[in-house]
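Re: that backbone. Tokens:
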């Protein structure tokens, strides 16, 4: 075998496995959308987030296959997360809203048109759900 043949084969297998896993997750999301009657735009957003996560995993594993030392990869990821963390410090609600969108999609059945109430010790807020996106309801 040549110098890079093993890495090419491993990379091809990894890409194939992640494509298959992504398709399986797409079907699970579609089934959840049909079961709970979710809006198409909501399903589209969740699919984008899942695809991003699969892409990130693909890149990290490809780096490891091609010989990037784990210590170098950890240093790079730590630096990247530090920059992203500082950037999101002022926009913490963005990250929490993306996370809550995924949680609401899979664990709580809230549909467009439903009435929800936010119970606060000082003020109770009630409203009708008009849209569910990654950043807000």
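Recovered sequence:
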């Amino acid at each position: 075998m040549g110098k890079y043949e093993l890495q090419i084969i491993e990379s091809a297998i990894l890409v194939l496995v992640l494509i298959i896993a992504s398709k399986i997750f797409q079907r699970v999301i579609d089934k959840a959308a049909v079961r709970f009657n979710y809006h198409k735009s909501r399903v589209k957003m969740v699919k984008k987030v899942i695809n991003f996560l699969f892409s990130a995993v693909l890149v990290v594993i490809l780096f490891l296959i091609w010989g990037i030392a784990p210590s170098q990869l950890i240093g790079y990821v730590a630096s990247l997360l530090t920059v992203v963390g500082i950037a999101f410090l002022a926009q913490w609600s963005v990250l929490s809203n993306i996370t809550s969108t995924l949680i609401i999609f899979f664990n709580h059945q809230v549909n467009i048109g439903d009435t929800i109430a936010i119970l606060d010790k000082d003020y109770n807020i009630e409203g009708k759900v008009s849209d569910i996106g990654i950043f807000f309801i």
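The chain has four helices and two strands. Residues 34 and 119 are 30 Å apart (CA to CA).
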